Amino acid sequence: MDLFLQQTVNAFALGGTYALLALGLAMVFSTMGLINFAHGELMTIAGYILMACGLAGVPFAFSILLAIAAAVLAAIVMERIAFRPVRNASGATMLVTSFAVSMILQVLFQNFISARSQAVLVPEILSESVRFGGLVIGVNKIAAIVTTIVMLIFLDRFMKHHRIGIAMRAAAEDFSVARLMGIRANTVIAGAFALSGFLAGVAAVLWVSQRASVDPLMGFTPVLKAFIAAILGGLGSLRGAVAGGFLLGFIEIYLAAYLPSGMQEFRDPIALCLVVLVLIFRPNGLIPSPALKAEKV
């Protein structure tokens, strides 16, 4: 029982990170119809800011603010320079653009910083553990769960009560009608990118806090998993992104914990098979986007 509870805590921590990243992808997709595969590089930028601040002796709390601010700024610049000029192009063109931005940033990281993994100085308290009865839970896991809960509550209130959040929800429902109602496309899309950068920055802090390192490809695997989570939850659905992120986190952790040692090398294929099994019964995802009116048959 203790092992199950221990792995459940780990699943919540990992699933929360996937949920935040999937939310960032879903927000951009719901407004632009774009899967931004350069989203992972926003994580990497935040990670390198944490590394630089640690080397410069900046307090970790202030480093977190700088890292998140850098991810938000990078997302806004990315939208303005790379995606706004091709906004009215085909989906394939925007997809290729996102891959191009991702590749360019990875090469810049490798050539101007380092191709190798770099250590990040994190507070010692994050490497400590807390005992609850028979459970031993890492402080970084607790921080990840609490941060995820706070972020989800904040985003829920932001999307329901803030003017930009309401505009983003309206644009996700029907962008054309939203524009006729006076909502500015540039404001909504820039806001979606800024919010996605904010989520990527928070996810980067959680990711780095548990690994204490950063490398040029740091964001690739988490964002790929977040993309799977977004599809699993219902592409374009914000609540679905959260559900898909947590479900994928639970699948990965439970397979790692309970799969026989001889089958551990097949853990990822088995996880993907389970995802496909869910999608067979829920083709539009766990919580389909309201904008998705018809099922594919």
TrEMBL record:
InterPro entries: ABC_transp_permease, BCAA_transport_permease. The chain crosses the membrane at residues 12-39, 45-77, 89-112, 132-155, 188-208, 228-257, 269-287. One of its GO terms (biological process) is L-alanine transport. Its main location: membrane. GO terms for molecular function: L-isoleucine transmembrane transporter activity; L-leucine transmembrane transporter activity; L-phenylalanine transmembrane transporter activity; L-valine transmembrane transporter activity. Pfam families: BPD_transp_2. Keywords: Amino-acid transport, Cell inner membrane, Cell membrane, Membrane, Transmembrane, Transmembrane helix, Transport. It is a multi-pass membrane protein. GO terms for cellular component: plasma membrane. CDD domains: TM_PBP1_LivH_like (cd06582). It is found in: Cell membrane. Belongs to the binding-protein-dependent transport system permease family. LivHM subfamily. This is Inner-membrane translocator.
